[in-house]
């Protein structure tokens, strides 16, 4: 047993989990073509969920602030991107890839811009007065989430809102008997780019060094003369912008969105953050990929089980590692 | 506890509310008012049991409606399959409590040990999974449509509790002594008993230990109280009370569906009631529940009128539409947490200290 766990650690430890999950699913599913389709779908979903969850995890790690209103950024991002895309539907329908891409960039930029501004507002107005008070943080951010959800209902109404996709992302690639939806591949690549950007920012730059040091030991960094609270606003805004981007991508993935989207995603985001361990983006990525793959595989293998799959995954992992897979917070 | 004039006022208000609820069928003689009164009774118990968690122990759970729902569905499913009868109600209550206890122990031991903050997230996840399961397992739970069934015969509107000389239903002060009245008093007295039991509990030595844990976890642990065990115990207790309240509500409504017992909207209502009334006092639960339920039933009418009056101005009518009342409550909620974290009862009780 000890030998096994030692080899496991040497090979990469918990990082292997998504691969193991994929391998097990491959055996169970049997048909390689459906396995590839499901895996791509799972990876794409995982990447989008990662975008939504990374901010929450960092914010908690750096400032010990738990934001229950995080999902508001996701749903606002989705609805704003959908509105921009709807307004530019002329560009989307044209055959020119440049116009298509311009509309997409405009939609995503609008979502990100909103995330930055709303994140700044949320941090200074809502969260600042209740630092270091978990109970009131949970209550206040919950209240903010209610207000945000009601605002969406007031502006966009309660009926499902359809999201147009750019022309060049419609359809699927067909390689042999494997078909991959183009949008899923695109979502995966964009998510991967965001992860690499975030990874480089945190591990290769001075500001990233300070953020990681702040997560590790906030008082020490402050006593060295750095303003952790200012850094924190930056991290919060970045996290909100990423969540809004994730929401915008999710809107295109689902093509039909309702105001309940935020509440649905919040559960998944929480599960991801708990599984991954609070405060580390690597852990969040791991958790997001596990959740994405698990729900797609189980949705195929045992549709009835799929509802509870994330919950089962979370319980199993918490029993094994009570602090999550790769926690950065003590 | 120090006696203050504020405390006296709060207690008098609660006493007045209790008196109003006791005589509600005689004071307000229409169907809607009785509905409101019964809902207030149930929610007082539900909110007070939630306050045991959030106010007396300082842990935030989002699974309280889940336990409420277990009690309601336990009674509903058995009343549907076994037919109307007291055996179905009692068995349903026991089943609901049993399921609630098992889940509460599991969640408590799993997450209260790790980190208090995980608890909020894990309960939220568990509650949402149960909500999805209930809407999926439609053979058992009726899915989104819920279950309609008949209550025990005693509570039928046609039942005559007392008859006059002609064999008709006896009237006292113009109120018919029929099954509807019996049902209301069933709700009232069950709620009263549960509430008094909880009131007794928080004054017991055990309740004091819980307050000690809330104030300083590390110190309580150091004195020798096992924090995890106490927290799990209080979680189970509050789950049990919520589940029983669910059973009573199911008997009163004769209908159980996700919207009446399980939905996230009810969880938000409970949170609002606790915070508005005041965390950490049982009296606060009474005040919060009364205010919120009244607002739910009567504020919407007011908002509808305001929305129509403002038609023509962009956005404002939508924000004032009756369906958007949660928007305003959310804002009030945030302001309350900022400026009056103790809620109405807590703030009032701190006033007018007697030396």
Layout: helices, strands, pairs:
The complex is a heterodimer of chains A (330) and B (355).
Chain A: H1 2-11, H2 17-29, H3 32-63, H4 70-87, H5 89-93, H6 97-127, H7 134-156, E1 161-162, E2 172-175, E3 178-181, H8 182-204, H9 206-216, H10 218-223, H11 228-254, E4 256-257, H12 261-276, H13 281-301, H14 303-320
Antiparallel strand pairs in A: 1-4, 2-3
Helix pairs in contact in A: 2-3, 2-13, 3-8, 3-9, 3-11, 3-12, 3-13, 4-6, 4-7, 4-11, 4-12, 6-11, 8-9, 8-11, 9-11, 12-13, 12-14, 13-14
Chain B: H1 5-22, H2 24-27, H3 31-54, H4 64-82, H5 86-112, H6 116-136, H7 138-141, E1 147-148, E2 171-172, E3 175-176, H8 179-203, H9 205-215, H10 217-223, H11 227-253, E4 255-256, H12 258-262, H13 264-277, H14 282-309, H15 316-320, H16 325-339, H17 343-350
Antiparallel strand pairs in B: 1-4, 2-3
Helix pairs in contact in B: 1-14, 1-17, 3-8, 3-11, 3-13, 3-14, 4-5, 4-11, 5-6, 5-11, 8-11, 9-10, 13-14, 13-17, 14-17
Structure description:
The complex is a heterodimer of chains A (330) and B (355). Chain A has one domain (42-162, 176-320): Orthogonal Bundle (ABC transporter involved in vitamin B12 uptake, BtuC), CATH 1.10.3470. The radius of gyration of chain A is 20 Å and the shape is globular. Chain A is 77% helix and 4% strand. In chain A, the strands form two sheets. Chain A has a two-stranded antiparallel sheet with strand order 1-4. A two-stranded antiparallel sheet of chain A has the order 2-3. By secondary structure, chain A is mostly helical. In chain B, the strands form two sheets. A two-stranded antiparallel sheet of chain B has the order 1-4. A two-stranded antiparallel ribbon of chain B has the order 2-3. Chain B is globular. Chain B has a single domain, classed as ABC transporter involved in vitamin B12 uptake, BtuC (Orthogonal Bundle), CATH 1.10.3470. In chain B, helix 5 runs antiparallel to helix 6 (116-136) and helix 9 (205-215) packs across helix 10. Chain B is mainly α and 355 residues long. In chain B, strand 2 and strand 3 form a beta hairpin. At the A-B interface, helix 7, helix 12 and helix 14 of A face helix 6, helix 13 and helix 16 of B.
